[in-house]
Amino acid sequence: MAPGQMHGVLAVILTVLPSLALATDFVVGDKAGWAINFNSTAWTADKVFRVGDTLVFNYNKDDHNVFKVDNATAFQKCEVPPPSNALTSGSDRILLKTSGKKWYICGKPTHCSEKGMKLVINVQEALEVPSPSPVPGAPSPNSANGILASGYQAFAAAIAAIALLVTV
Ligand SMILES: *[C@@H]1O[C@H](CO)[C@@H](O)[C@H](O)[C@H]1NC(C)=O
Ligand SMILES: *[C@@H]1O[C@H](CO)[C@@H](O)[C@H](O)[C@H]1NC(C)=O
Ligand SMILES: [Cu+2]
């Protein structure tokens, strides 16, 4: 199959099955990245963050960094945690492992307090298809869901494989 056709097939599959839950990478600030005049309210407005998704902070590492802060108070006051807690690669990925509010700031002077470099998100539970662990010899009432779940997982793996083939 030609690469163009593959793109087509992938597009059709992704269009037909919008309910398939795949983890999302959210690039903070989109093209502008993690930069001064970031607007947390505007950037998060149309997004739903879920456990399993990833935040990607792209920034000039000479100018900025990323700290996770523990609570709303520290966030509001722009309290910078110890330097050893900084993320500094310039392209940091943060996997969202738990639900609830998460707070991130830039630790450079005034960037959080005056230049908008602070992000608060509310992470929702993952949209998971239940996958009960099968007990041999004891068919559970959820076994149909289990089969569905493995089907979905296999399907998601297939999609990922196709996507990889298309992008390399
Ligand atoms: C951030 O975006 C919100 C929503 O679009 C807007 O109301 C607000 O004025 C913006 N804040 C700044 C500091 O630009
Ligand atoms: C908020 O987090 C800061 C920094 O970790 C900590 O010192 C403070 O006690 C926390 N406040 C509350 C109310 O948990
Ligand atoms: Cu900064």
From TrEMBL:
Pfam families membership: Cu_bind_like
Statement: the UniProt record of this protein carries the keyword Glycoprotein: yes
Signal peptide: 1-23
GO biological process, one term: response to symbiotic fungus
Cellular component GO terms, alphabetical: plasma membrane
Protein name: Stellacyanin-like protein
Coiled-coil stretches: none
Membrane topology annotation: Single-pass type I membrane protein
GO MF annotation list: electron transfer activity; metal ion binding
UniProtKB keywords: Copper, Disulfide bond, Electron transport, Glycoprotein, Membrane, Metal-binding, Signal, Transmembrane, Transmembrane helix, Transport
Every Phytocyanin domain range: 24-125
UniProt subcellular location: Membrane
Gene3D superfamilies in the cross-refs: Cupredoxins - blue copper proteins (2.60.40.420)
UniProt key word Acetylation: no
